[in-house]
Amino acid sequence: MTDFVHLHCHSEYSLLDGMSTPLDIAAVASSNGQFAAAITDHGTMGGVLKFQSACDSFGVRPLFGVEAYFVPSVGSDSDSKYER
User: Fold this and answer.
1) What is the rounded distance in angstroms from the CA atom of residue 43 to the CA atom of residue 67?
2) What's this model's pTM, rounded to 2 decimal places?
3) Which of 28, 49, 74, 76 has the largest count of CB atoms under 10 Å?
């Protein structure tokens, strides 16, 4: 399965969503014969340096991303139970 790459993968840096370490992700991708692997954590790029190092050691190309959420305007966003 060398022509397949997971592009939506959360590591332990995605709190309450990911369990794998960046090293785990690189190792599994390599053992499955994949040429690349991605890390797309929730709102953080905190694991990219460890991921890049791990990918380099396993001969896997690292792909970096982030899963982010946007709202039209935080100022107009409200929750009635907190309004004064």
Assistant:
1) 6
2) 0.79
3) 28
Asked if residues 40 and 67 have their Cβ atoms less than 8 Å apart, the reply is yes
What is residue 81's predicted lDDT score, i.e. its pLDDT?
57
Q: Is the pLDDT of residue 9 over 70?
A: yes
Tokens of 23: 């090293």
Q: Which residues pair with 38 in a beta bridge?
A: 63
Tokens of 13: 């840096």
What confidence score (pLDDT) does residue 31 get? 94
Two tokens at 75?
A: 């100022």
CA distance 12 to 22: 8
Point out which residues pair with 37 in neighbouring strands: 62
Enter the tokens of residue 14: 């995605």
| pLDDT in the model for residue 3 | 81
Provide the β-strand partners of residue 40.
Answer: 65
Residue 72, pLDDT above cutoff 80: no
What residue ranges do the domains of the chain occupy?
1-67
